[in-house]
Write a structure and sequence with these properties.
single chain; alpha/beta; 9 strands; 3-stranded antiparallel beta sheet; disordered N terminus; 5 domains; Rossmann fold
Length: 533
């Protein structure tokens, strides 16, 4: 049952800033021959602020259908009579324009369109980049657009590894969907400002006092807030989801956004899935997340063609698969193919291993340095395996506890560093080629650093030489050959240079190590390196 309740009086206060509400109420009451009801005044204020009827209904705690019935049989007919328009011609979008023409707007100069710009046209881009060229992503844009508009999700995360295109996709998403919101705001949290520092800026931009509660403002008006670079708020060297000191407020805010009723949407862009979203997400719930993967074939081909490569070449699909459609990787490799191989993709694939490039290497370095030691250990093992492996296989090789291994695997998945497949009902884990190449290079560097330490002091404890097997005897021949070529040989070559630089012979180092008690994989690895008899 509809009732006249005073809580309506506090809704849509911004209307009083630009409209002569007292005169407007009085004139409408004269037309009606009776006082306006509180919900009618609130609805009128909402319409003057360019809110949709559905958004007004949300604030009034009514159903959209009930409010529309009341507006159609009451307020809309009064407004038509007041401005001398034919009956049943008023649409909600015209309310502010018609009343501005009749002089109810108190902003100096101009008409309603210039002085009260529809809030739905307002975007504060902050540090968002200009995205002038964009390929593919039509399915992602359609799905995310549905989440933001029709499904009215409160909290959405788009996450994926660096360079995969999260920011570019979000820019296009905001351009596509902003008309459904009163205002859209974009902020990067790359410098990890505490929430108490960024919240006043947001609420001020939304037209409130700096001290206003951000979530309360998100209840009062339908806004879209984008937080980019969210992973910088999370602590390095901890399992995914742990906040840096001073940034814990973001986690609490995400919890509130996920749980509490409001009409806005917070869109989070991150290399890692925030744990608050993990706890609340669901296909039919107002909290959802999407792991962004590489471009689909058509988009990737368009990207490479724009870089001057032959889109009809059969080898272009092999190239796309090798780099998993990663836009950053494809841009880098396209430049290499053009400049070094004169645009010949096949020749590039035949003569080179995977190319990382400085940009991609930097992105992977940033992500790798955030990992815990158990996570790094898992990645090293997967890079050495060079094929999908099961949880049981990893547990046997690493001799790790099940709980620790599972925690590391889950954390790596939320960091977008693992690929998971299923074979005969069993979960298998592997690294995509670009990540595998980078991790193998890091592993070789760390083992060489360990070897150099042993050259200086043969009593130093073993680390990776004890915990990871350089070459696996039971591996298929092709994989074993790759382990020798890409892991063992680079380490042996570096060992030769280290010994020469330190004026130590291989025999001398063998003698120094001969008194050591070896454990785990140390003896096998030292034998492979020629350091053990």
């Amino acid at each position: 049952m509809l009732t006249d309740v005073d809580p309506f009086e506090r809704l849509f206060p911004d209307a009083a800033v630009q409209w002569d509400l007292s005169r407007l109420y009085a004139d409408l009451e004269q037309v009606a021959g009776k006082p306006l009801k509180p919900f009618e005044k609130a609805s009128l204020r909402g319409l003057l602020c360019r809110y949709r009827p559905g958004q007004i209904a949300f604030q009034c705690s009514w159903s959209s259908g009930s409010l529309r019935v009341e507006l159609n049989k009451g307020l809309y007919r009064l407004l038509e009579a007041l401005v001398e328009r034919p009956p049943n011609t008023l649409r909600w979008e015209k309310v502010a324009d018609w009343l501005a023409e009749r002089g109810y707007q108190i902003t100096a100069g101009g008409n309603a369109a210039s002085n009260l710009r529809p809030a739905s046209a307002s975007i504060d881009w902050g540090e968002a980049p200009e995205v002038s060229v964009f390929w593919g992503r039509e399915p992602e844009l359609t799905m995310l657009g549905q989440w933001l508009t029709a499904d009215q999700c409160r909290l959405v995360a788009v996450w994926g590894m660096g360079g995969i295109g999260k920011t570019a996709l979000a820019v296009k998403l905001v351009e596509q969907c902003h008309q459904d919101f009163a205002i859209a705001l974009w902020r990067s949290v790359r410098q990890a400002p505490p929430l108490v520092q960024i919240a006043p800026d947001l609420v001020t931009t939304l037209g409130r006092e700096p001290s206003a509660d951000l979530l309360e403002v998100m209840r009062q008006q339908r806004c879209l807030i984008v937080l980019d670079d969210y992973e910088t708020l999370l602590q390095d060297g901890e399992l995914v989801g742990t906040y840096r000191p001073g940034c814990e407020g973001y986690g609490e805010f995400l919890e509130r956004v996920a749980r509490e009723r409001h009409q806005s949407c917070l869109l989070v862009l991150s290399r890692e899935q925030p744990k608050e979203i993990t706890h609340h997400q669901g296909d039919r719930l107002p909290v959802r997340s999407h792991k962004l993967k590489g471009l689909q074939r058509a988009g990737a081909v368009a990207l490479l063609a724009a870089r001057g490569l032959d889109a009809t070449a059969n080898s272009i699909h092999v190239l796309i698969e090798q780099y998993r459609g990663n836009p950053a990787a494809l841009r880098i490799v396209a430049t290499t193919i053009q400049e070094v191989f004169n645009g010949n993709i096949s020749e590039f694939l035949q003569q080179t291993a995977l190319t990382l490039g400085d940009v991609l290497r930097t992105l992977l370095y940033q992500q790798f340095e955030r990992l815990t030691e158990p996570e790094k250990a898992v990645l090293y093992w997967l890079a050495l395996q060079r094929r999908p492996v099961s949880l049981n296989t990893l547990r046997e090789q690493m001799e790790a506890s099940g709980s620790e291994l599972i925690a590391a695997l889950e954390s790596l998945r939320w960091r977008s560093l693992l690929e998971k497949t299923t074979e005969v009902g069993e979960a298998l884990f592997q690294l995509e080629p670009v990540v595998m190449k980078y991790v193998n290079q890091k592993f070789v560097e760390e083992v060489c650093r360990e070897v150099e330490t042993l050259v200086s002091d043969a009593e130093q404890p073993f680390r990776l030489l004890a915990s990871h097997l350089l070459v696996e005897d039971t591996a298929p021949d092709g994989i074993r050959a790759t382990q020798i070529r890409l892991t063992l040989k680079p380490i042996k070559d570096r060992l030769t240079r280290i010994l020469a630089r330190n004026f130590v012979t291989l025999d001398t180092l063998r003698d120094r190590l001969s008194t050591r008690q070896l454990y785990d994989y140390a003896e096998t690895n030292l034998t492979l390196l020629g350091l053990w008899y």
